[in-house]
Protein backbone atom coordinates (compact mmCIF):
# COMPACT_ATOMS: atom_id res chain seq x y z
CA UNK A 1 0.00 0.00 0.00
CA UNK A 2 1.20 3.50 -0.80
CA UNK A 3 2.32 5.58 2.15
CA UNK A 4 -0.54 8.03 2.80
CA UNK A 5 1.73 10.92 3.89
CA UNK A 6 4.03 10.63 0.89
CA UNK A 7 1.04 10.32 -1.43
CA UNK A 8 -0.58 13.46 -0.01
CA UNK A 9 2.68 15.43 -0.42
CA UNK A 10 2.96 14.25 -4.04
CA UNK A 11 -0.67 15.14 -4.77
CA UNK A 12 -0.18 18.63 -3.32
CA UNK A 13 3.01 19.06 -5.39
CA UNK A 14 1.11 18.16 -8.55
CA UNK A 15 -1.63 20.66 -7.72
CA UNK A 16 0.73 23.49 -6.78
CA UNK A 17 3.39 22.73 -9.40
CA UNK A 18 6.24 24.14 -7.30
CA UNK A 19 8.44 22.53 -4.63
CA UNK A 20 8.87 25.64 -2.47
CA UNK A 21 5.15 26.52 -2.38
CA UNK A 22 4.32 22.86 -1.69
CA UNK A 23 6.69 22.95 1.30
CA UNK A 24 5.08 26.16 2.58
CA UNK A 25 1.56 24.81 2.14
CA UNK A 26 2.42 21.50 3.80
CA UNK A 27 4.43 22.99 6.66
CA UNK A 28 7.60 21.24 5.50
CA UNK A 29 11.01 22.13 4.15
CA UNK A 30 11.74 21.85 0.44
CA UNK A 31 14.20 18.95 1.04
CA UNK A 32 11.40 17.26 2.99
CA UNK A 33 9.10 17.47 -0.04
CA UNK A 34 11.83 16.01 -2.25
CA UNK A 35 12.42 13.23 0.26
CA UNK A 36 8.72 12.28 0.26
CA UNK A 37 8.70 12.30 -3.54
CA UNK A 38 11.78 10.08 -3.74
CA UNK A 39 10.42 7.62 -1.15
CA UNK A 40 7.11 7.36 -2.97
CA UNK A 41 8.89 6.81 -6.31
CA UNK A 42 11.00 4.10 -4.64
CA UNK A 43 7.85 2.47 -3.30
CA UNK A 44 6.24 2.54 -6.76
CA UNK A 45 9.45 1.38 -8.42
CA UNK A 46 9.41 4.01 -11.19
CA UNK A 47 10.10 7.78 -11.48
CA UNK A 48 7.02 9.91 -10.94
CA UNK A 49 8.19 13.20 -12.46
CA UNK A 50 10.56 14.40 -15.16
CA UNK A 51 12.31 17.66 -14.18
CA UNK A 52 12.97 20.51 -16.63
CA UNK A 53 14.79 23.20 -14.69
CA UNK A 54 12.45 24.43 -11.94
CA UNK A 55 9.40 22.88 -13.57
CA UNK A 56 8.45 19.25 -14.00
CA UNK A 57 6.09 16.98 -15.88
CA UNK A 58 4.50 13.78 -14.74
CA UNK A 59 5.63 10.44 -16.04
CA UNK A 60 2.95 7.82 -16.89
CA UNK A 61 3.61 6.30 -13.47
CA UNK A 62 3.23 9.75 -11.90
CA UNK A 63 -0.11 10.29 -13.62
CA UNK A 64 -1.37 6.94 -12.32
CA UNK A 65 -0.23 7.72 -8.77
CA UNK A 66 -1.80 11.21 -8.93
CA UNK A 67 -5.11 9.63 -9.89
CA UNK A 68 -4.88 7.48 -6.76
CA UNK A 69 -4.01 10.51 -4.63
CA UNK A 70 -7.00 12.48 -5.92
CA UNK A 71 -9.32 9.50 -5.51
CA UNK A 72 -8.15 8.98 -1.93
CA UNK A 73 -8.82 12.62 -1.13
CA UNK A 74 -12.35 12.27 -2.48
CA UNK A 75 -12.89 9.12 -0.45
CA UNK A 76 -11.81 10.96 2.69
CA UNK A 77 -14.17 13.85 1.89
CA UNK A 78 -16.99 11.37 1.33
CA UNK A 79 -16.17 9.65 4.62
CA UNK A 80 -16.19 12.97 6.44
CA UNK A 81 -19.54 13.90 4.90
CA UNK A 82 -20.99 10.51 5.87
CA UNK A 83 -19.78 10.80 9.44
CA UNK A 84 -20.82 14.42 9.89
CA UNK A 85 -24.22 13.98 8.19
CA UNK A 86 -26.67 12.98 10.89
CA UNK A 87 -30.29 13.49 9.85
CA UNK A 88 -33.03 11.99 12.05
CA UNK A 89 -35.16 11.34 8.96
CA UNK A 90 -32.55 9.59 6.79
CA UNK A 91 -30.89 6.16 7.01
CA UNK A 92 -31.53 2.62 8.17
CA UNK A 93 -32.56 1.54 11.65
CA UNK A 94 -33.58 -1.80 13.16
CA UNK A 95 -35.73 -2.60 16.19
CA UNK A 96 -36.22 -5.83 18.13
CA UNK A 97 -39.19 -6.37 20.45
CA UNK A 98 -41.74 -8.94 21.58
CA UNK A 99 -44.34 -10.17 19.13
CA UNK A 100 -47.24 -8.39 20.83
CA UNK A 101 -45.36 -5.11 21.01
CA UNK A 102 -44.24 -5.49 17.37
CA UNK A 103 -47.88 -5.90 16.29
CA UNK A 104 -48.88 -2.80 18.19
CA UNK A 105 -45.83 -0.76 17.19
CA UNK A 106 -45.73 -1.43 13.47
CA UNK A 107 -48.67 0.80 12.43
CA UNK A 108 -46.99 3.65 14.34
CA UNK A 109 -43.73 2.90 12.51
CA UNK A 110 -45.53 3.09 9.16
CA UNK A 111 -46.83 6.53 10.11
CA UNK A 112 -43.27 7.62 10.95
CA UNK A 113 -42.06 6.35 7.58
CA UNK A 114 -44.78 8.30 5.75
CA UNK A 115 -43.36 11.46 7.30
CA UNK A 116 -39.73 10.45 6.62
CA UNK A 117 -39.52 8.87 3.13
CA UNK A 118 -35.75 8.33 3.38
CA UNK A 119 -35.95 6.44 6.67
CA UNK A 120 -35.76 2.64 6.39
CA UNK A 121 -37.05 0.88 9.51
CA UNK A 122 -36.96 -2.88 10.20
CA UNK A 123 -39.03 -4.37 13.06
CA UNK A 124 -38.24 -7.91 14.24
CA UNK A 125 -40.19 -9.92 16.83
CA UNK A 126 -37.75 -11.82 19.04
CA UNK A 127 -37.46 -13.30 22.56
CA UNK A 128 -35.99 -11.22 25.35
CA UNK A 129 -32.43 -12.58 25.44
CA UNK A 130 -32.17 -12.53 21.66
CA UNK A 131 -33.09 -8.83 21.70
CA UNK A 132 -30.40 -8.02 24.26
CA UNK A 133 -27.76 -10.01 22.39
CA UNK A 134 -28.70 -8.46 19.05
CA UNK A 135 -28.49 -4.92 20.45
CA UNK A 136 -25.08 -5.70 21.92
CA UNK A 137 -23.70 -7.11 18.66
CA UNK A 138 -25.19 -4.33 16.53
CA UNK A 139 -27.87 -6.33 14.72
CA UNK A 140 -30.56 -4.15 16.34
CA UNK A 141 -30.16 -0.40 16.91
CA UNK A 142 -32.97 -0.42 19.46
CA UNK A 143 -34.62 -3.08 21.58
CA UNK A 144 -37.80 -3.04 23.66
CA UNK A 145 -37.68 -5.42 26.62
CA UNK A 146 -40.02 -6.17 29.51
CA UNK A 147 -37.53 -5.84 32.35
CA UNK A 148 -34.79 -3.39 33.32
CA UNK A 149 -31.36 -4.13 31.87
CA UNK A 150 -28.13 -3.36 33.67
CA UNK A 151 -25.19 -3.79 31.32
CA UNK A 152 -22.04 -1.66 31.01
CA UNK A 153 -22.38 -1.42 27.20
CA UNK A 154 -26.10 -0.61 27.09
CA UNK A 155 -28.23 2.46 27.67
CA UNK A 156 -31.73 1.78 29.01
CA UNK A 157 -34.66 4.21 29.16
CA UNK A 158 -37.93 3.38 30.89
CA UNK A 159 -40.67 3.35 28.27
CA UNK A 160 -44.02 2.52 29.87
CA UNK A 161 -45.86 0.27 32.28
CA UNK A 162 -47.91 -2.22 30.30
CA UNK A 163 -50.76 -4.16 31.87
CA UNK A 164 -51.01 -7.94 31.58
CA UNK A 165 -54.62 -8.44 30.52
CA UNK A 166 -56.94 -11.39 31.12
CA UNK A 167 -58.86 -11.62 27.84
CA UNK A 168 -62.23 -13.39 27.50
CA UNK A 169 -64.93 -13.42 24.79
CA UNK A 170 -67.13 -10.30 24.78
CA UNK A 171 -70.14 -12.42 25.86
CA UNK A 172 -68.39 -13.08 29.20
CA UNK A 173 -67.91 -9.39 30.01
CA UNK A 174 -69.05 -8.39 33.49
CA UNK A 175 -68.70 -11.83 35.08
CA UNK A 176 -66.71 -12.39 38.24
CA UNK A 177 -64.04 -14.89 37.29
CA UNK A 178 -62.39 -17.39 39.57
CA UNK A 179 -60.13 -20.32 38.67
CA UNK A 180 -63.08 -22.71 38.41
CA UNK A 181 -64.86 -20.54 35.84
CA UNK A 182 -61.62 -19.93 33.93
CA UNK A 183 -60.97 -23.66 33.71
CA UNK A 184 -64.50 -24.22 32.44
CA UNK A 185 -63.81 -21.69 29.69
CA UNK A 186 -60.24 -23.14 29.15
CA UNK A 187 -56.94 -21.54 28.26
CA UNK A 188 -55.76 -20.40 24.82
CA UNK A 189 -52.08 -21.07 25.40
CA UNK A 190 -49.10 -19.43 23.68
CA UNK A 191 -45.32 -19.37 24.28
CA UNK A 192 -45.43 -16.56 26.88
CA UNK A 193 -48.89 -17.44 28.17
CA UNK A 194 -47.78 -19.91 30.82
CA UNK A 195 -45.43 -17.39 32.45
CA UNK A 196 -48.14 -14.72 32.27
CA UNK A 197 -50.60 -17.10 33.95
CA UNK A 198 -48.17 -17.94 36.75
CA UNK A 199 -47.58 -14.25 37.29
CA UNK A 200 -51.19 -13.02 37.21
CA UNK A 201 -53.05 -15.99 38.70
CA UNK A 202 -50.69 -16.63 41.59
CA UNK A 203 -51.06 -12.96 42.50
CA UNK A 204 -54.87 -13.18 42.53
CA UNK A 205 -55.52 -16.80 43.55
CA UNK A 206 -52.56 -17.63 45.83
CA UNK A 207 -54.36 -20.42 47.71
CA UNK A 208 -56.00 -22.19 44.78
CA UNK A 209 -53.60 -21.71 41.89
CA UNK A 210 -51.29 -24.72 41.43
CA UNK A 211 -49.32 -23.62 38.37
CA UNK A 212 -49.84 -23.16 34.63
CA UNK A 213 -49.22 -26.88 33.99
CA UNK A 214 -52.52 -27.55 35.78
CA UNK A 215 -54.59 -25.25 33.55
CA UNK A 216 -57.10 -26.74 31.18
CA UNK A 217 -55.76 -25.90 27.70
CA UNK A 218 -58.11 -25.72 24.71
CA UNK A 219 -55.57 -24.80 22.05
CA UNK A 220 -52.00 -23.59 21.62
CA UNK A 221 -51.00 -20.82 19.19
CA UNK A 222 -47.47 -19.55 18.52
CA UNK A 223 -48.38 -16.82 16.01
CA UNK A 224 -48.90 -13.66 18.05
CA UNK A 225 -51.48 -12.17 15.68
CA UNK A 226 -53.65 -15.29 15.90
CA UNK A 227 -53.68 -15.74 19.68
CA UNK A 228 -56.81 -13.61 20.30
CA UNK A 229 -58.77 -15.23 17.46
CA UNK A 230 -59.96 -18.33 19.45
CA UNK A 231 -60.95 -15.98 22.29
CA UNK A 232 -62.96 -13.80 19.90
CA UNK A 233 -64.59 -17.00 18.62
CA UNK A 234 -65.69 -17.89 22.17
CA UNK A 235 -63.35 -20.87 22.54
CA UNK A 236 -61.40 -19.80 25.61
CA UNK A 237 -59.49 -17.09 27.44
CA UNK A 238 -55.88 -15.96 27.25
CA UNK A 239 -53.46 -13.50 28.84
CA UNK A 240 -51.64 -10.88 26.77
CA UNK A 241 -49.90 -7.56 27.29
CA UNK A 242 -52.18 -4.64 26.50
CA UNK A 243 -50.26 -3.95 23.27
CA UNK A 244 -51.28 -7.38 21.97
CA UNK A 245 -54.94 -6.61 22.66
CA UNK A 246 -54.84 -3.10 21.19
CA UNK A 247 -53.22 -4.39 17.98
CA UNK A 248 -55.94 -7.02 17.37
CA UNK A 249 -58.28 -5.98 14.55
CA UNK A 250 -61.31 -7.61 16.21
CA UNK A 251 -60.70 -6.31 19.72
CA UNK A 252 -64.34 -5.22 19.98
CA UNK A 253 -65.11 -8.97 20.24
CA UNK A 254 -62.93 -9.25 23.36
CA UNK A 255 -63.38 -8.21 26.95
CA UNK A 256 -60.63 -7.41 29.45
CA UNK A 257 -61.39 -8.77 32.92
CA UNK A 258 -59.93 -6.70 35.72
CA UNK A 259 -58.90 -9.05 38.53
CA UNK A 260 -58.59 -7.60 42.05
CA UNK A 261 -54.81 -7.34 41.69
CA UNK A 262 -53.37 -6.11 38.42
CA UNK A 263 -49.94 -7.02 37.07
CA UNK A 264 -47.80 -4.76 34.91
CA UNK A 265 -44.67 -5.16 32.84
CA UNK A 266 -42.16 -2.34 32.84
CA UNK A 267 -41.04 -1.78 29.26
CA UNK A 268 -37.59 -0.42 28.52
CA UNK A 269 -35.92 0.83 25.35
CA UNK A 270 -32.31 -0.32 25.14
CA UNK A 271 -29.50 0.67 22.80
CA UNK A 272 -25.76 0.18 22.65
CA UNK A 273 -23.83 3.02 24.33
CA UNK A 274 -22.99 5.70 21.79
CA UNK A 275 -25.57 4.39 19.33
CA UNK A 276 -28.34 6.35 21.03
CA UNK A 277 -26.50 9.57 20.12
CA UNK A 278 -27.10 8.98 16.39
CA UNK A 279 -29.90 11.33 15.33
CA UNK A 280 -32.18 8.78 13.68
CA UNK A 281 -31.81 6.36 16.60
CA UNK A 282 -32.48 9.06 19.20
CA UNK A 283 -35.45 10.38 17.21
CA UNK A 284 -37.05 6.94 16.81
CA UNK A 285 -36.49 6.11 20.48
CA UNK A 286 -38.27 9.34 21.42
CA UNK A 287 -41.05 8.58 18.92
CA UNK A 288 -41.63 5.11 20.42
CA UNK A 289 -41.67 6.58 23.93
CA UNK A 290 -44.35 9.10 22.94
CA UNK A 291 -46.47 6.46 21.23
CA UNK A 292 -46.16 4.06 24.18
CA UNK A 293 -47.82 6.57 26.48
CA UNK A 294 -51.12 5.10 25.21
CA UNK A 295 -50.27 1.79 26.89
CA UNK A 296 -50.22 3.30 30.37
Automatic annotation (TrEMBL):
<feature type="domain" description="HTH lysR-type">
    <location>
        <begin position="2"/>
        <end position="59"/>
    </location>
</feature>
<keyword id="KW-0804">Transcription</keyword>
<keyword id="KW-0238">DNA-binding</keyword>
<comment type="similarity">
    <text>Belongs to the LysR transcriptional regulatory family.</text>
</comment>
<dbReference type="InterPro" id="IPR036390">
    <property type="entry name" value="WH_DNA-bd_sf"/>
</dbReference>
<dbReference type="GO" id="GO:0003700">
    <property type="term" value="F:DNA-binding transcription factor activity"/>
</dbReference>
<dbReference type="GO" id="GO:0000976">
    <property type="term" value="F:transcription cis-regulatory region binding"/>
</dbReference>
<dbReference type="InterPro" id="IPR036388">
    <property type="entry name" value="WH-like_DNA-bd_sf"/>
</dbReference>
<dbReference type="InterPro" id="IPR005119">
    <property type="entry name" value="LysR_subst-bd"/>
</dbReference>
<protein>
    <submittedName>
        <fullName>LysR family transcriptional regulator</fullName>
    </submittedName>
</protein>
<dbReference type="Pfam" id="PF03466">
    <property type="entry name" value="LysR_substrate"/>
</dbReference>
<dbReference type="Pfam" id="PF00126">
    <property type="entry name" value="HTH_1"/>
</dbReference>
<keyword id="KW-0805">Transcription regulation</keyword>
<dbReference type="InterPro" id="IPR000847">
    <property type="entry name" value="LysR_HTH_N"/>
</dbReference>
